[in-house]
Amino acid sequence: MSKLHVDSITKSFGKQKILQDIFLSCETREILGILGRNGSGKSTLFQIIFGTLKGENQFIKFNEVILKNQFNRKNRISYLPQNSFLPKNIKIKKLIELFCDDENAAELLNSKLIQPFINEIPSNLSGGELRILEVLLIIYSKAEFILLDEPFHSLSPKIVSEIKNLIKEKSKSKGFIISDHQFQDVLDISNKIYLLSNSYLKPIKDLTELKRFNYLPKNI
Ligand SMILES: Nc1ncnc2c1ncn2[C@@H]1O[C@H](COP(=O)(O)OP(=O)(O)OP(=O)(O)O)[C@@H](O)[C@H]1O
Protein backbone atom coordinates (compact mmCIF):
# COMPACT_ATOMS: atom_id res chain seq x y z
CA MET A 1 0.00 0.00 0.00
CA SER A 2 1.24 3.52 -0.82
CA LYS A 3 0.21 6.88 0.56
CA LEU A 4 0.15 10.38 -0.91
CA HIS A 5 0.24 13.00 1.81
CA VAL A 6 -0.60 16.59 0.92
CA ASP A 7 -0.23 19.20 3.64
CA SER A 8 -0.06 22.95 4.34
CA ILE A 9 -0.78 24.04 0.76
CA THR A 10 -1.27 27.75 0.39
CA LYS A 11 -1.65 29.60 -2.91
CA SER A 12 -2.62 33.12 -3.92
CA PHE A 13 -2.85 34.84 -7.29
CA GLY A 14 -2.09 38.50 -6.58
CA LYS A 15 -4.25 39.48 -3.61
CA GLN A 16 -6.72 36.63 -4.22
CA LYS A 17 -6.22 33.76 -1.75
CA ILE A 18 -7.11 30.56 -3.63
CA LEU A 19 -5.93 27.82 -1.25
CA GLN A 20 -5.28 28.03 2.49
CA ASP A 21 -3.76 25.35 4.65
CA ILE A 22 -5.00 22.47 2.48
CA PHE A 23 -4.55 18.97 3.89
CA LEU A 24 -5.49 15.68 2.30
CA SER A 25 -4.24 12.17 2.34
CA CYS A 26 -4.91 9.45 -0.23
CA GLU A 27 -3.93 5.79 -0.02
CA THR A 28 -3.97 3.19 -2.77
CA ARG A 29 -7.47 1.63 -2.84
CA GLU A 30 -9.02 5.05 -2.08
CA ILE A 31 -10.99 7.33 -4.37
CA LEU A 32 -11.20 10.93 -3.12
CA GLY A 33 -13.75 13.25 -4.69
CA ILE A 34 -13.14 16.99 -4.68
CA LEU A 35 -16.12 19.20 -5.41
CA GLY A 36 -16.24 22.95 -5.63
CA ARG A 37 -17.88 25.82 -7.44
CA ASN A 38 -16.35 27.30 -10.59
CA GLY A 39 -13.14 29.11 -9.76
CA SER A 40 -12.86 27.60 -6.27
CA GLY A 41 -9.29 26.34 -6.92
CA LYS A 42 -9.62 22.63 -7.77
CA SER A 43 -7.36 22.76 -10.85
CA THR A 44 -4.88 24.93 -8.96
CA LEU A 45 -4.72 22.28 -6.21
CA PHE A 46 -4.21 19.47 -8.76
CA GLN A 47 -1.40 21.39 -10.49
CA ILE A 48 0.38 21.93 -7.18
CA ILE A 49 0.09 18.24 -6.24
CA PHE A 50 1.35 17.26 -9.71
CA GLY A 51 4.18 19.78 -9.48
CA THR A 52 3.49 22.03 -12.47
CA LEU A 53 2.58 24.92 -10.15
CA LYS A 54 4.21 25.98 -6.89
CA GLY A 55 2.32 27.02 -3.79
CA GLU A 56 3.65 29.67 -1.40
CA ASN A 57 3.63 26.80 1.05
CA GLN A 58 3.43 23.10 0.34
CA PHE A 59 4.44 19.74 1.76
CA ILE A 60 3.78 16.71 -0.43
CA LYS A 61 4.99 13.22 0.39
CA PHE A 62 4.80 9.88 -1.46
CA ASN A 63 5.27 7.30 1.29
CA GLU A 64 8.43 8.59 3.01
CA VAL A 65 9.75 10.57 0.00
CA ILE A 66 9.17 14.33 0.04
CA LEU A 67 8.20 15.37 -3.49
CA LYS A 68 10.17 18.48 -4.35
CA ASN A 69 10.30 18.43 -8.13
CA GLN A 70 8.79 16.86 -11.23
CA PHE A 71 11.42 14.11 -11.34
CA ASN A 72 10.32 12.87 -7.86
CA ARG A 73 6.78 12.47 -9.17
CA LYS A 74 7.61 10.33 -12.24
CA ASN A 75 5.72 7.03 -12.16
CA ARG A 76 4.17 8.07 -8.85
CA ILE A 77 1.61 10.71 -9.85
CA SER A 78 -0.21 11.11 -13.18
CA TYR A 79 -2.50 14.04 -13.92
CA LEU A 80 -5.37 14.51 -16.35
CA PRO A 81 -5.61 18.28 -16.85
CA GLN A 82 -8.93 19.95 -17.58
CA ASN A 83 -7.80 20.99 -21.06
CA SER A 84 -6.66 18.80 -23.91
CA PHE A 85 -2.96 18.00 -23.72
CA LEU A 86 -2.15 15.41 -26.42
CA PRO A 87 -0.07 16.09 -29.54
CA LYS A 88 -2.57 16.01 -32.40
CA ASN A 89 -0.71 14.11 -35.11
CA ILE A 90 0.78 11.09 -33.39
CA LYS A 91 -0.88 7.68 -34.00
CA ILE A 92 -2.90 6.59 -30.97
CA LYS A 93 -1.04 3.26 -30.84
CA LYS A 94 2.20 5.26 -30.53
CA LEU A 95 0.71 7.46 -27.78
CA ILE A 96 -0.21 4.33 -25.82
CA GLU A 97 3.43 3.17 -26.03
CA LEU A 98 4.59 6.61 -24.83
CA PHE A 99 2.23 6.84 -21.84
CA CYS A 100 2.10 3.22 -20.68
CA ASP A 101 4.62 0.52 -19.84
CA ASP A 102 4.37 -2.76 -21.82
CA GLU A 103 1.97 -4.46 -19.41
CA ASN A 104 -0.44 -1.52 -19.17
CA ALA A 105 -0.21 -0.85 -22.93
CA ALA A 106 -1.21 -4.45 -23.69
CA GLU A 107 -4.14 -4.16 -21.29
CA LEU A 108 -5.29 -0.83 -22.76
CA LEU A 109 -4.99 -2.11 -26.34
CA ASN A 110 -7.42 -4.87 -25.33
CA SER A 111 -9.96 -2.44 -23.84
CA LYS A 112 -13.17 -2.11 -25.82
CA LEU A 113 -13.24 1.60 -24.96
CA ILE A 114 -10.18 2.29 -27.13
CA GLN A 115 -11.07 0.00 -30.04
CA PRO A 116 -13.19 2.46 -32.08
CA PHE A 117 -10.27 4.83 -32.68
CA ILE A 118 -7.15 2.75 -32.17
CA ASN A 119 -5.83 3.42 -35.71
CA GLU A 120 -6.56 7.15 -35.66
CA ILE A 121 -4.63 10.28 -34.72
CA PRO A 122 -6.07 12.67 -32.09
CA SER A 123 -6.86 15.41 -34.63
CA ASN A 124 -9.40 13.06 -36.27
CA LEU A 125 -11.35 12.43 -33.04
CA SER A 126 -14.49 14.13 -31.74
CA GLY A 127 -14.19 16.16 -28.52
CA GLY A 128 -15.67 13.32 -26.47
CA GLU A 129 -13.53 10.63 -28.15
CA LEU A 130 -10.43 12.71 -27.44
CA ARG A 131 -11.45 12.97 -23.77
CA ILE A 132 -11.97 9.18 -23.55
CA LEU A 133 -8.48 8.66 -24.99
CA GLU A 134 -6.91 11.15 -22.56
CA VAL A 135 -8.68 9.64 -19.55
CA LEU A 136 -7.59 6.12 -20.53
CA LEU A 137 -3.95 7.09 -21.13
CA ILE A 138 -3.74 8.61 -17.65
CA ILE A 139 -5.62 5.80 -15.86
CA TYR A 140 -3.46 3.14 -17.53
CA SER A 141 -0.21 4.99 -16.78
CA LYS A 142 2.22 3.37 -14.38
CA ALA A 143 1.65 5.91 -11.58
CA GLU A 144 0.13 4.76 -8.30
CA PHE A 145 -1.75 8.03 -7.79
CA ILE A 146 -4.02 9.39 -10.49
CA LEU A 147 -5.37 12.96 -10.45
CA LEU A 148 -8.38 13.42 -12.72
CA ASP A 149 -9.63 16.95 -13.41
CA GLU A 150 -13.07 16.73 -15.05
CA PRO A 151 -12.70 13.20 -16.46
CA PHE A 152 -16.43 12.95 -17.29
CA HIS A 153 -16.65 16.25 -19.17
CA SER A 154 -18.28 15.74 -22.60
CA LEU A 155 -18.64 11.96 -22.17
CA SER A 156 -21.97 10.24 -22.91
CA PRO A 157 -23.76 8.44 -20.01
CA LYS A 158 -22.81 4.84 -20.99
CA ILE A 159 -19.16 5.81 -21.35
CA VAL A 160 -19.23 7.65 -17.99
CA SER A 161 -20.55 4.48 -16.40
CA GLU A 162 -17.78 2.37 -18.01
CA ILE A 163 -15.07 4.84 -16.95
CA LYS A 164 -16.47 4.82 -13.39
CA ASN A 165 -16.26 1.00 -13.35
CA LEU A 166 -12.70 1.17 -14.69
CA ILE A 167 -11.70 3.65 -11.95
CA LYS A 168 -13.20 1.37 -9.29
CA GLU A 169 -11.38 -1.64 -10.74
CA LYS A 170 -8.05 0.22 -10.96
CA SER A 171 -8.45 1.58 -7.42
CA LYS A 172 -7.61 -1.95 -6.19
CA SER A 173 -3.98 -0.97 -6.79
CA LYS A 174 -4.04 2.84 -7.23
CA GLY A 175 -5.29 5.92 -5.40
CA PHE A 176 -7.50 8.39 -7.26
CA ILE A 177 -8.29 12.06 -6.64
CA ILE A 178 -11.15 13.18 -8.87
CA SER A 179 -12.90 16.44 -9.50
CA ASP A 180 -15.89 16.88 -11.79
CA HIS A 181 -19.01 19.02 -11.96
CA GLN A 182 -21.06 15.83 -12.56
CA PHE A 183 -21.16 15.61 -8.78
CA GLN A 184 -23.39 12.53 -8.62
CA ASP A 185 -20.84 10.51 -10.62
CA VAL A 186 -18.10 11.68 -8.24
CA LEU A 187 -20.25 10.77 -5.20
CA ASP A 188 -21.03 7.32 -6.70
CA ILE A 189 -17.42 6.16 -6.74
CA SER A 190 -15.67 8.15 -3.99
CA ASN A 191 -14.80 6.82 -0.54
CA LYS A 192 -14.30 10.34 0.78
CA ILE A 193 -15.70 13.65 -0.43
CA TYR A 194 -14.24 17.12 0.08
CA LEU A 195 -15.62 20.51 -0.82
CA LEU A 196 -13.24 23.31 -1.76
CA SER A 197 -14.97 26.46 -0.62
CA ASN A 198 -13.66 29.91 0.32
CA SER A 199 -10.11 28.55 -0.15
CA TYR A 200 -10.50 25.79 2.48
CA LEU A 201 -10.97 22.06 1.88
CA LYS A 202 -13.83 20.71 3.99
CA PRO A 203 -14.55 16.99 4.50
CA ILE A 204 -18.18 16.35 3.53
CA LYS A 205 -20.50 13.72 5.06
CA ASP A 206 -23.63 13.97 2.93
CA LEU A 207 -25.74 15.95 0.45
CA THR A 208 -27.18 18.10 3.26
CA GLU A 209 -23.73 19.52 3.89
CA LEU A 210 -23.25 20.22 0.18
CA LYS A 211 -26.47 22.28 0.33
CA ARG A 212 -25.51 23.98 3.59
CA PHE A 213 -22.19 25.08 2.11
CA ASN A 214 -24.06 26.46 -0.91
CA TYR A 215 -22.59 24.05 -3.45
CA LEU A 216 -25.90 22.34 -4.28
CA PRO A 217 -29.24 24.11 -4.73
CA LYS A 218 -31.68 23.48 -1.87
CA ASN A 219 -34.20 21.68 -4.10
CA ILE A 220 -31.98 18.69 -4.98
N1 LIG B 1 -2.47 31.81 -13.60
C1 LIG B 1 -3.43 32.46 -12.95
N2 LIG B 1 -3.33 33.78 -12.69
C2 LIG B 1 -4.28 34.43 -12.00
N3 LIG B 1 -5.41 33.85 -11.53
C3 LIG B 1 -5.57 32.54 -11.78
C4 LIG B 1 -4.59 31.78 -12.48
N4 LIG B 1 -5.03 30.49 -12.57
C5 LIG B 1 -6.22 30.45 -11.93
N5 LIG B 1 -6.55 31.67 -11.46
C6 LIG B 1 -7.74 32.01 -10.68
O1 LIG B 1 -7.76 31.14 -9.56
C7 LIG B 1 -9.08 30.73 -9.27
C8 LIG B 1 -9.14 29.22 -9.21
O2 LIG B 1 -8.97 28.70 -10.53
P1 LIG B 1 -9.06 27.13 -10.80
O3 LIG B 1 -8.86 26.93 -12.27
O4 LIG B 1 -8.16 26.43 -9.88
O5 LIG B 1 -10.58 26.84 -10.38
P2 LIG B 1 -11.46 25.53 -10.56
O6 LIG B 1 -12.05 25.22 -9.23
O7 LIG B 1 -10.68 24.46 -11.22
O8 LIG B 1 -12.60 26.09 -11.53
P3 LIG B 1 -13.55 25.39 -12.64
O9 LIG B 1 -14.41 24.41 -11.89
O10 LIG B 1 -14.34 26.54 -13.16
O11 LIG B 1 -12.67 24.74 -13.66
C9 LIG B 1 -9.97 31.40 -10.32
O12 LIG B 1 -10.53 32.57 -9.76
C10 LIG B 1 -9.02 31.74 -11.44
O13 LIG B 1 -9.44 32.88 -12.13
From TrEMBL:
Alphabetized UniProt keyword annotations:
ATP-binding, Nucleotide-binding, Transport
Q: Which InterPro entries match?
A: AAA+_ATPase, ABC_transporter-like_ATP-bd, ABC_Transporter_VariousFunc, P-loop_NTPase
Q: State a single Gene Ontology molecular function.
A: ATP hydrolysis activity
User: Which Pfam families does the UniProt entry name for this protein?
Assistant: ABC_tran
Q: Gene3D superfamilies attached here?
A: P-loop containing nucleotide triphosphate hydrolases (3.40.50.300)
Q: Which domain of life does the UniProt lineage start with?
A: Bacteria
Q: What is this protein called?
A: ABC transporter domain-containing protein
Q: Which organism is it from?
A: Chryseobacterium aquaticum
